[in-house]
Amino acid sequence: MEILKQLLVWRRDVRHFRTDAVPEALVEDLLDLVQLAPSVGNSQPWRFVRVESAGARATVRASFEACNEEALAGYEGDRARLYAGLKLAGLDRAPLQFAVFCDGATAQGHGLGRGTIPDTLDWSVVGAIHVLWLAARAQGLGLGWVSILDPQAVTAALDVPAGWRLVAYLCLGWPAEEHATPELERRGWQGRTGAGRTVLVR
Ligand SMILES: Cc1cc2nc3c(=O)[nH]c(=O)nc-3n(C[C@H](O)[C@H](O)[C@H](O)COP(=O)(O)O)c2cc1C
Question: Distance between CA atoms of 77 and 107, rounded to whole angstroms?
Fold first, then answer.
């Protein structure tokens, strides 16, 4: 339990990476562990697309720059200044990058569960990403989740099958620094509040 607690406390969203390579066997081990994640009807709808081509990476970075600029324009005053100083993606240095999709057309799981709550298919992909996040941390690797992107632009750049929905774009590599506190908290954007902790029973 203590080890699990340490893993949860030290897991971070990482945006500052060293550029040295991650051994291929380690990447394979991590992706094997992802397959142990829970999924609605055991549908396993996650599709991890490893993004290697310079062209596709450039498209993703351009999309991030445009979306980030647009997001900045939505803030004013001190919040805008704070936002402008945040580093919200490790796309410039992360040696490994994955676009993670949900295969909305998969027959696996035979529809169980998602007939009533279709979003459970996407949530299953999020669960798999969290497994990767923790497994990476356990190996000393850092993972950064980038969602300030135009999903259509990223999907088009990767030429994936129709029906795949972009859930996340992930940067993976050796972290340049270690912290027990979220970067957004350290920079004064948003700390942990425990706001969702209380369950009201009526
Ligand atoms: C669904 C999701 C999307 C996220 N998108 C981004 C993002 O676009 N850019 C970013 O810097 N962090 C992103 N994050 C990371 C959060 O900012 C981070 O989890 C939060 O600040 C708490 O920090 P911690 O993960 O280090 O505990 C995302 C996290 C989740 C779960």
Answer: 50
The verdict on residue 5 lying in a domain is no
The predicted-structure confidence for 149-162, as pLDDT tens digits, reads as follows 999 999 999 999 99
* Residue with tokens 């971070």, as numbered in its chain: 12
C-beta of 145 in contact with ligand 1 (< 6 A): yes
Q: Residue 82 falls within a domain, yes or no? A: yes
C-alpha of residue 145 to centroid of ligand 1, in Å: 6
Distance from C-alpha of 17 to C-alpha of 143, rounded to nearest angstrom: 9
Q: Which of 145, 146, 172, 192 to mutate to test the pocket of ligand 1 (most atoms within 8 A of CB)?
A: 145
- Structural domains counted in the chain: 1
First to last CA, the chain: 32
The residue whose C-alpha atom lies closest to atom 21 belonging to ligand 1 is: 184
What are the pLDDT digits (tens) for 162-194? 999 999 999 999 999 999 999 999 999 999 998
Residue 201 belongs to a domain: no
Q: 100-125: per-residue pLDDT in tens? A: 999 999 999 999 999 999 999 999 99
User: What range defines the domain where residue 170 resides?
Assistant: 12-190
What is the CATH classification number for the domain harbouring 17?
A: 3.40.109.10
Decide if 109 is inside a domain: yes
